[in-house]
Amino acid sequence: MRALIRSWPLSVPLFALVVLALTWGRDIPVALVVIVALALGGAVSTAVHHAEVVAHRIGEPFGSLVLAVAVTVIEVALIVTLMVSGGPDSVTLARDTVFAAVMITCNGIVGISLLAGARKHQIVAFNAEGAGAALSTVATLATLSLVLPTFTTSKPGPEFSTGQLVFAASASLALYIVFVLTQTKAHRDFFLPVGISDSEQEHAPPPTGRAALISLGMLLVSLVAVVGLAKVESPAIEAGVAAAGFPPSFVGVVIALLVLLPETFAAVRAARRDRMQTSLNLGYGSAMASIGLTIPAIAVASIWLDGPLVLGLGATHMVLLALTLVVGMLTVVPGRATRLQGGVHLALLAAFLFLAINP
Question: How far apart are CA 329 and CA 126, in angstroms?
Answer without folding.
Answer: 13
